[in-house]
Amino acid sequence: MDETTPREPHDERPREVGGEPVAVPPSALGSERRPEDSESADSESDADSTPRPADTEPVAPFEPDTGPIPVQSPTAAHTAGTGSETVGDVPLGPAPVHWPQPEPTPPPAVDPLAAALGNASLLGIGYLLLRRRWLAVLAFLVTIGYLLVSALVVRNVFFHLVLVLWAGALAWHGWRIAAKSGQVPSPRRQRVIGVAAVLPVLVVVTLVRVDAAGIESDSDAARDGGDCDKSVAEVARLSFAHRLADPPLVARGEHATATCQRLAASAASLKTGLNGRHAALDQGFTGLAGLLKDEPAYDNVVRHVLDDFLAELPKRENCEVADVTQWLRDHRPEGDLLGRAADVVPGLQPKALLSCADSLLARQSLQPALTRYKSLVAMYPNHELTPRAKEGAQKAQWAIELAAVRSALGTSTGRPRYCDAAPPYTAAPPHAPPGRAYVAGSSEFTARLPAGWVVDDVANATVVLCVGPSGEGSVAKSCPYIEIGGLRRRSTVSFHRIAVPVRAIELTSGRVLSDVTLEIGGATCPEFLNTSTVGDVKEKVVPTDADVHAAFAPLVSR
After folding, report:
1. What does each C-alpha distance from 532 to 305, 491, 498, 537, 541 come to in angstroms?
2. Fewer CB in a 10 Å sphere around the end CB: N or C, the chain?
3. Distance in angstroms (rounded) separating the CA atoms of residues 416 and 459
């Protein structure tokens, strides 16, 4: 048996194409087999594929060959173009392909400055450059949440400065991670991305803050000019963008609005107080004083409100001016600014008091008028209007007394209350003849008095005559009479004077001048007398006007 020469093993190492290793499958390597191997394989294949006749003699039993066994090289098992693997002549199926495993892709190298600038935008752009998407999302959400809290809840400078520290922390963290990612040969592109991320944020925030500062400046200028309404209108221009960019400034604007609303409430109270309501005046000036204490920068606005109040005061009705000036006199506001409100009192109050008192007197509001007159006299004894106030006070006093007299004379039935408790009427002259009488009570006989003796209005009288019902007085004369016809009986008839109780009261003092029962005489003993009484008869005299005059003359004209 011939000696079998071993073949060279196939080189299955990856080949290099263009400097990079390329894996070559074993099927491709099978094309390099030797010619003799192909011929041998073909002959064997043809031999195996030739059909045998059915009548072929049986094959002799296999006898093992004691000679050397040929050994086929592993590379010969790969048939060209089939990709199959055989052991000897027995095919085992497709040959396995051994591909090299790819190595994991390393993270990209990022320029530290680009990562820091991207993160400084507070939007997590640096983390996106580093392929740290979750960190980018987390940074963005934290930034948005912090901005909302800063804009809506905690709006102070210190809390807002934390946002700057947060931006610095994000920039530092991005720089640190990028520094470990390797050196970037050309970082220009990444740095342009970082600048493009942070620059618009800085520009927008700067522009919004500058606009907010301008609005605040306009609001402060309006406030310093005393126009709180315009200041509030300027603050109303602040938008939600201003809240995000500069929360402390927006908070100051809202505080300015609240202060102006507080001032407006005090101004409304003062306007109500112009009607003379002391409670509203107290509330208004207390509010202004408290605002000046809390917000000294609003002194011009307070001055403007006070000027409007003082300018409107003289235009009000006199009694309202009198009430307001009286409150200012009694409750002088503290401080130089509010205290000057009381400085207008001497120039307004005397005239207001006099005019108010005159109008009250004309409307028969007697006691309030008297109070106003007396206040003017007491507070301004040397004022040019004081003599007129004294005269007015006297008139009011007399009117009050006369009203009391009339009330006592005319409100009761029967005997007037005046006759028992007479209030004085000092405007009436003392009673002296010839006097003028006002009759209270029965007018049965006083109606027959002369017109010059009796008046219809007590204001024109000097004496009041309280006249009671008439009765039987003393006997003036007794006369005998004979009955005509019949039994012709004789009788005596007594003629009595008429008794009239009268109380004379001096009107000016209420003093009782006399309390007597007047007896009025008259004609007696007529020639004929009609009577149904038999025996002694009582009759009244028949007075003439002269008899009535004579009876009342001592009380009226004496």
Report:
1. 95, 11, 22, 9, 18
2. N
3. 17
